[in-house]
Specification:
Two copies of one chain form a homodimer. Helices cover 79% and strands 1% of the residues of chain A. Chain A has 363 residues and is an all-alpha fold. The first copy, chain A, has a two-stranded antiparallel ribbon. In chain A, helix 4 packs parallel to helix 7 and helix 9 runs antiparallel to helix 15. The N terminus of chain A is likely disordered. The interface between A and B is large, with 59 and 59 residues.
Chain lengths: 363, 363
């Protein structure tokens, strides 16, 4: 009973945090809306699209890791500055999603039209001149650029001691460069049609594990004045957890329920994403299975029969089972590292719940 | 003779500054190359493309305004920190150019393939899978994002007193939001096929005058600890000058010599850019001239006869002459404001030379 109560208590805090992050973003966006309105009322649709992209849905996972990284390093859980810094990560993430959707040609995000799609549709509905797709792409590029600029602005405004903000900013810059480099590695791998497990895991490391878990935790820790030893312990927890999180995402991208993921069934297969799941299927495929992979993977016109066939190959080659084992192993390894870190009980519990939520989910 | 010598002296300093900015960028990029190499050797082409985009050509106009804004506010001309801060503006500009070229579908920049074009060509040359255009666009988006992130990183690293950097950062953030908002206004105007002189001037104000002249000058001034009065005097100089600079750019986009601009003849006409030049032509057009504008402007297949016809309309409607008058008037007004500001002689001379170079040029 005590354990359940303690858990309920932490979960409440996690919900509170999500609300606080939402409130910070809301106030920040209201301020930016005034700046954009100063440039012209034509910016209204851009502001609305950004508000929806940043306020609707979203697990606020990166702010949560940042906040608990702070608490785990002894930071005051009631310090408002850490919520500002943590919320800034959602702006970076907003840019990553908006630009990713352009790069992947994804028309849906959380069940709603993606930003570039929305502007392409607006263009066509109004009968404006030139191709609607190009207007959508251009709008998406610019709106992502706004988010990318704003994440610095919000982080810079957190109001925590200048020396610590400066130290954290160094890590922040490194995180961004790693994220973007990881994204490049991802599109490169997709273009060369690679099926290397090693390279797929490297993409995960930079594009997800560091960006989603390790760096946010460390940012919180550095802002709280943590020493190098804690940063390294966070790494030992974060990297296996972040990998498991992305592997879960990859499984959902192939087998997930569209009603819960907000994406069409088998979307990752249609896009030809070079995930660890796919790389493992390639590695263990018979020549017939390989032919199916070559033929269907990345076909934009892939129908439900094709999706079923590829799913069958992924199951029959044992790739799905192997990935589930990797997820379980990564989660266990993260939990072990967490226990060894010896965090204050509140932060330890919250991080262990976050770890479970990140790896054992349906959307 | 004294005047000529003084001028020669200042020009030498301007050349020195350009070299110093280049050296700062070179060292910064070398550091980032190590980070990217850590992610993977696959990033090599990305790093090479960024180096070329940022190091080859370029007037380094924004760093120059930032530096002289600092000197004009009494900052030490030999302070290395101001060169770091000034150089960071080139990274922001790198992002603006790389993303602009995607949005405009421009294949050339300074006579070389634009970044997205280069990656589309690489894709096709290697025979990678999927459409080369999409790979080019994705690469261009990511490389622009790197530049946008890096401009903060370099600015944050300038090493000037923290309080002044924080004050300047507020202005820096505002500049970026205004720039991106101005770019949105630009693509919006192009999509709606607008011919409003008022709106075209508003685009110039945000996309060029503030971003290229006013904010860089003010950034330098704030870093040097200037008061509000000087910032306002810089505005009085910067806005008419910045407008004249962009109007000159618009004239070159239609009438410029491709050998000097590095862009195909009449490129702006092919793209259908909604410049003040075009808006003034619309306003004064006869019904026949208007029909020509409607028919040819923004036609991607516009041939040299079409370019000639549109040029003729712009000349015959008096639009070219009017724009030349606006350029002359803006430059005069800027020079008057500069004189009234009473800057130290070195900074005053340098800014007046920059103003001339910005408005009276062939490339």
């Amino acid at each position: 009973v005590t354990a359940t109560l303690a858990q309920a208590d932490t979960q409440l805090t996690t919900v509170d945090l999500r609300e606080q992050v939402g409130a910070v973003l809301d106030a920040f966006l209201t301020g930016q809306a005034a700046v954009l309105r100063g440039v012209g009322h034509e910016l209204e649709p851009a502001m609305n699209a950004l508000r929806e992209a940043l306020m609707v849905g979203g697990k606020r996972l990166r702010p949560a890791f940042c906040y608990w990284g702070w608490c785990g390093a002894g930071g005051d859980p009631r310090e408002p500055g850490i919520v500002l810094a943590a919320a800034s990560l959602e702006l970076l993430h907003g840019c990553a999603l908006i630009h990713d959707d352009i790069m992947d040609g994804s028309d849906l995000r959380r069940g709603l039209p993606s930003v570039h799609r929305r502007f392409a549709d607006l263009h066509d509905a109004k009968g404006w001149s030139g191709p609607g797709e190009a207007f959508g792409t251009a709008s998406g590029i610019l709106l992502g650029d706004l988010c990318l600029s704003w994440c610095d602005e919000l982080f810079d405004a957190c109001g925590l001691p200048a020396g610590r903000v400066a130290a954290a900013k160094t890590l922040f810059h490194q995180m961004r460069t790693e994220l973007i480099a990881g994204q490049y590695l991802d599109i490169f791998e997709q273009a060369v049609g690679g099926s290397s497990v090693e390279r797929a895991r490297r993409v995960i490391r930079y594009k997800t594990a560091k960006y989603t878990v390790e760096r946010p935790l460390q940012l919180g820790a550095v802002l709280a004045g943590a020493d190098r030893a804690l940063l390294d312990r966070y790494t030992a927890f974060a990297l296996p957890l972040g990998e498991a999180f992305q592997l879960r995402d990859d499984v959902l991208g192939v087998f997930g329920d569209p009603a819960r993921t907000g994406k069409p069934a088998g979307d990752d297969l249609r896009e030809g994403k070079r995930t660890v799941l796919v790389a493992l299927a390639y590695r263990a495929a018979s020549s017939g299975q390989r032919a199916d992979l070559e033929r269907w993977l990345g076909d934009p016109a892939l129908d439900s029969a094709g999706v079923e066939r590829l799913r069958a190959v992924i199951v029959e080659t044992g790739a799905l089972e192997r990935v589930e084992r990797l997820i379980a192993r990564g989660t266990r390894s993260a939990m072990r590292a967490l226990l060894e870190t010896g965090l204050p009980p509140g932060a330890g519990r919250a991080l262990s719940l976050l770890a479970t939520a990140a790896t054992d989910r349906a959307a």
